[in-house]
Amino acid sequence: MKQPVPVIAIDGPSGSGKGTIAHRVAKALGWHLLDSGALYRLVALSAGKAGIPLEDAEGLAGIARALDVKFDSYDDGSERIWLGSEDVTDQVRTEATGAGASAVAAIPAVREALLARQRAFQQPPGLVADGRDMGTNVFVDAQLKIYLTASAEERARRRHKQLKDKGMDVSLAALSRDIEHRDRRDSERSVAPLRPAEDARILDSSGQSIEAVTQTVLDWASELWF
Length: 226
Fold this sequence. Notes:
Largest sheet: 5 strands, parallel
Number of domains: 1
Shape: globular
CATH superfamily: P-loop containing nucleotide triphosphate hydrolases
Radius of gyration: 17 Å
Order of helices and strands: EHEHHEEEHHHEHEHHEH
CATH class: Alpha Beta
Strand order of the largest sheet: 2-6-1-7-8
CATH architecture: 3-Layer(aba) Sandwich
Number of strands: 8
Number of helices: 10
Strand content: 15-25%
């Protein structure tokens, strides 16, 4: 019987580090990477460019179905995201786009439009998928499900440092409020709310280095496949 393509599903709240960990794990294993959060950010970004309000569910679903997106990497291994012929990596990662993505992700028609596109990333030799409902909705049969979390305070500090390093003037207090608001909206939405899958392994990254968390995930993957 043909074995399914292995999937590592990494879910967690904003700022937990799941994107960084997923990228490193995928690179270490030589597997494909799905940044599902970037897809929702791209819908929000495209809506803004097209003048479509975030309350227009039908218009947003149309954008989701027609997204021309490509994930790539810079020479140093950091992510690069293309929307059509435009490099939108920096635009996708702004706080405004993130807030828009959280609102867009609560719309059932948008989630349905992106579901098949996300599942199409499951290709040999394997997939590392990060998001908020990878293990609970998109890849329910994933062999390894991880819920990566960290305290709201630590997540705000991480995001603050990340934005300051990019030369952006941001308020730590404002970031903390935004993260708490986003957590509440993501966990209380009616469709695919943010929560650990019943069979997920909980991994708290508070106080841990990126390298240590990455190694934990690789060790768990080794238990299953290597």
